[in-house]
Design a protein that fits this description.
Length: 395
């Protein structure tokens, strides 16, 4: 099986974050299953080992009129991908959905190559609630075309399945492929980062967070919870890995609580450095908050699976898919979404009970190893595609 992975959104020089972790993970999983993979991207790609990567860059004027150039870029990709299609002859295109992106549909129509759409969320919804669009009708039309022409649509959660259906996808052609984890890279065997020794935290209980300080991640809720919990347990310390729009606000919460000397902000780090920071923690938090418009949380937090593979005690808000992954009292503890006092209560309880931390962490590790590796995700994707092929052969 030959797969051409196509990612044509504009992301500049950025090569880390959840979408890139998924990209690297699922492609590595496909390779491990014997699939021949080639990547076509429109920006510098993250490291993919020996997977061939071809770059079809955006116009240098992209940042001036991003939506206009996103629309025009469809035609540039269609033109420049032709020699690669002839040379590589892929069995299927695997395209990541993005704003005004109909490249997969155009390739399918001109060259007859079927495609799988990796639908990580409705661009219409995200532009409406998190950003803006100057061409809403064109954006919605592009999304309907991308979904309607795909032979298979992958989503990361059941909530996103419903979002894809509402956006125009055929429910019978949607398969849920959640995010996952590299269980070799994220492991209890990882040597901890020396941060604890450097800061004199050897006897402290360290609460960790990895993620974007933005939207639904809840870093501010964790900061408020730490201020509450530290009043009951002065040995608590915290480590924040990541950056984002709310980074300054989170730091101000910590500063006002008089905890600046007990909280480390290390900023954005390379993904392969993240395991060492997680290994330096005792408790890991997924303080997800609800969508601002009251709609169902549709994400599949990559950090959740990475936390589990580290064998650490996890506190999470049971929104959407998180509720099905973390079982309260078995593979982690639940706290109320957006409720700093509830999160603080869980932190204090785990800080005081090393046996509970050990039990929850071990159960989470076993679950991650058995069910949530990228290899398992790749097998789900391949199985779904084989079902599509079988259904077509019977027509």
């Amino acid at each position: 099986m030959r797969v051409l992975y196509l990612r044509t959104d504009f992301y500049g020089a950025q090569t880390d974050g959840g979408s890139f972790t998924m990209q690297k993970g699922i492609l590595a999983g496909l390779r491990a299953c014997g699939v021949d993979v080639v990547v076509v991207t429109s920006c510098p790609a993250p490291e993919h080992g020996d997977i061939p990567v071809h770059v079809i860059p955006y116009s240098r004027s992209m940042m001036n009129l991003p939506e206009v150039f996103s629309i025009a870029h469809n035609h540039r990709v269609l033109k420049e991908i032709a020699p690669l299609l002839k040379r590589y002859t892929p069995d299927v295109i695997y395209q990541r959905h993005s704003s005004h992106n109909i490249t997969g549909a155009m390739i399918h129509r001109r060259y007859g190559v079927p495609y799988i759409l990796q639908f990580d969320g409705s661009e219409v919804w995200m532009k409406t609630h998190w950003s803006q669009t100057y061409f809403p009708a064109m954006l919605a039309n592009a999304e309907r075309i991308a979904l309607g022409c795909a032979a298979l649509v992958t989503v990361v959660s059941e909530a996103m399945r419903r979002m894809a259906t509402d956006a125009g996808a055929d429910a019978d052609r949607i398969v849920v492929v959640p995010n996952g984890v590299d269980i070799e890279q994220f492991s209890p065997k990882v040597r901890p980062h020396p941060l604890r020794q450097e800061r004199g935290w050897n006897d402290a209980i360290v609460v960790g967070f990895v993620g974007t300080f933005d939207q639904w991640h809840g870093a501010d809720v964790l900061a408020h919870a730490l201020a509450i919990a530290a009043q009951r347990n002065p040995s608590l310390r915290a480590l924040f890995v990541g950056d984002g729009a709310m980074h300054g606000a989170v730091m101000r919460i910590i500063d006002r609580a008089g905890m600046s000397d007990r909280v480390a902000f290390v900023g954005r780090v390379r993904h392969d450095h993240v395991p060492a920071y997680l290994a330096a923690c005792d408790i890991l938090a997924v303080p997800t908050v609800p969508n601002p418009d009251g709609t169902e949380f549709f994400g599949s937090p990559t950090k959740l699976f990475e936390y589990m593979a580290m064998g650490k005690a996890i506190i999470a808000t049971p929104l959407g898919q998180v509720r099905t992954i973390i079982r309260d009292g078995e593979t982690g503890l639940w706290c109320e979404a957006g409720d700093a006092a509830s999160l603080a209560e869980c932190i204090v309880a785990l800080a005081a009970n090393p046996a509970l931390r050990q039990r929850l962490g071990q159960a989470a590790l076993e679950e991650a190893t058995k069910n949530h590796s990228w290899l398992a995700r790749a097998r789900t994707l391949i199985g779904a595609w084989e079902n599509v092929l079988r259904s077509k052969s019977t027509l």
